[in-house]
Amino acid sequence: MAFVNVLAFLRSLMRTHAELAVENLALGQQLAALQHRSKRPRLRKRDRIFWVWLARFWSNLRSALLIVQPETVLRWHKQGFKLYWRWKSRSRKAGRPRIDAEIRKLIRRMSRDNPLWGTPRIQSELALLGYAVAESTIDVYRIRLPMPPAHTWRTFLDNHVRDIVAVDFFTVPTAILRILYAFLVLRHERRTVARFNVTAHPTAQWTAQQVVEAFPWEEAPRFLIRDRDAIYGREFRERVKNTGIEQVVTAYRSPWRSPFVERLMGSIRRECLEHVIVLNERHLRRILSSYFAYYHEARTHLSLECNSPVPREIEPPERGKVIAIPQVGSLHHRYRRDA
User: Fold this and answer.
1) I need a labelling partner for 86 at 20 to 30 A (CA). Which of 31, 42, 139, 254 fits?
2) What is the pTM of this model?
3) Which domain holds residue 198?
């Protein structure tokens, strides 16, 4: 219809004024009759575009409008303006840019290989491999396993952290239903285990000997935090006092007063002992040795700026592809670049 009107307009340029006046009169009479007889006509999109285009070049358009109201043409123009700017302002790619496929595969690989790891642990490992990935992104791509979340401690000892160690026992059942006692000496500064040992019959003398052997070369700390267990008897107190260490005794049944060593024992159980069956003292000592090697050199800690007690070097991607090193009987893995 619009094309036909354009042809008629070009043809009218070659006609006289009288002929145009008569033709306009005839066309106006027919449109008036059509308007009286028929219902509201339906216009197509190209008809509306034509009227909007014509309104921009003909200021006296209102005098020629019969089947279309001037307000309708103005409304069409506004709608076309909105559609044009909506198309021009459209976003090419909505949302955040997708991360590389290599990183996505690595996140899934870490979560699959280490079912005991949460999002912060995976984020720390990725940071040490040179990848800066947000926790929300890791939550999207990591594989979630039906496991309860690990509990966290909110209280930290900041004052004199370099001069504080904590000691404690935890029990381990064996395959033949015996009870073994594991003793820990933990430094607060970098969460390093100064000494550990295992026995089936702990005594005050044996316990004091472990503390003395943990600091043989005048490296004794200033404070030692312990609970009120009867194992720390008079012989233990006197021998520790002779080394120049001041003992800080926690309140009765208040494990939160010594959170670092309590958290360590919980990590040992959740990440190691709950997944193996201990046979005897030698077996338990070998398992703990393997775990503490991983704990010191590979395991990341939020309180240590997402690094391990023995700090790991950040390895950028240009050093090579990522390889996995099984540790603690493949319960955990360490990731590094294969230079």
Assistant:
1) 42
2) 0.62
3) 161-297
The answer as to whether 302 is a domain residue is no
Full pLDDT tens readout for the chain, 339 residues: 555 565 666 666 665 666 666 566 555 655 665 555 556 666 666 666 665 665 555 555 555 554 555 566 566 567 776 777 777 776 666 566 678 889 999 999 999 889 888 899 999 999 999 999 999 899 988 887 765 544 443 444 566 788 899 999 999 999 999 999 999 999 998 999 999 999 999 999 999 999 999 987 767 888 999 999 999 999 999 999 988 899 989 988 888 889 899 999 999 999 999 999 999 999 999 999 999 999 999 999 988 889 999 999 999 998 889 999 999 999 999 999 987
Measured distance CA(247)–CA(146) in Å, rounded: 42
| Residues 190, 318 share a domain | no
Confirm whether 150 is domain-assigned. no
**Helix segments in the chain, DSSP class H:** 2-12, 17-37, 45-57, 70-88, 101-113, 119-128, 135-141, 204-214, 234-242, 259-271, 281-297
Other C-beta atoms within 10 Å of 288: how many?
Answer: 22
Token pair of 156 as six digits: 């930290």
Query: Which tokens sit at 336?
Result: 């590094």
